Amino acid sequence: MAGWLALMLIVAIAGRETTRELNVFQIMEVRSTLGLLMLYPLVRLNGGLAAMRTSRPLQHVGRNLIHYAAQLGWFFALTLIPLGQVVSIEFTMPIWTAILAASFLGERLTVGKIAAVVLGVVGVIVIVRPATGEINPGQLIALGAAVGFGISVAMMKSLTRTEKTLAIIFWMLVIQSVAGFLPSLYVWRWPTAYAWSWLVVIAFCGTFSHYCMARAMLYADATVVLPMDFLRVPLTAAAGWLIYSERLDTLTVLGAALILTGNLLNLRGVPRLPARAGA
Known about the structure:
Number of strands: 0
Helix content: over 70%
Largest sheet: none
Structural class: mainly alpha
Strand content: under 5%
Number of helices: 12
């Protein structure tokens, strides 16, 4: 999860720079295509394409189409409502994942895990301070995206029980490349050298961040792993302060403290699970 957090922080910075020039469909397509090329040497070292065969193709397709749609919904919501509201609603995702994992994967919702989720959500709300008022379509779209991310992560956790981590990431890139090909072709414009450099960064970090997430899911319950993702908010706020001179105020620090407290409660006394053969 430390790898996931670091790489996703870099993706956030690279995404801000790249969206100055390019459409989101094009960014996502280049990310998937370049990511597949970057992953291929690792595929070769682990038995080649034959080793990527799966007995659960429909779950791979379903999981990745849901994840792709959730990504699109998140970006679309950014055009309809303030960023603070989008981020606040997005971080309800671990709640949906925890509920789904408990309902369908047999994971237990302990008091510590529930406290971690609650403190994490409160911490995010303190940081982003979403405006109150009537619910508009953008808020509903953002909520749908958060639910979609939660379903995607729960399905990933299920896949780790029978599938190799590398195969999960391989099929994510293949399916999302196919799904986004025609839309990206419609909006395509040739990137500048500056945009290409950031696209390569997004492809590398986006691909191997998911590899880290899948490995984390292999070693721990989703209800343990996912609340740690709340740390992405204070880390991103700190990066914005250092790189873009965005204000880091008292409420942001307070929110980060709540998130850290929740994660410490969640991780306290959690035994390390042994790795399975072939992982």
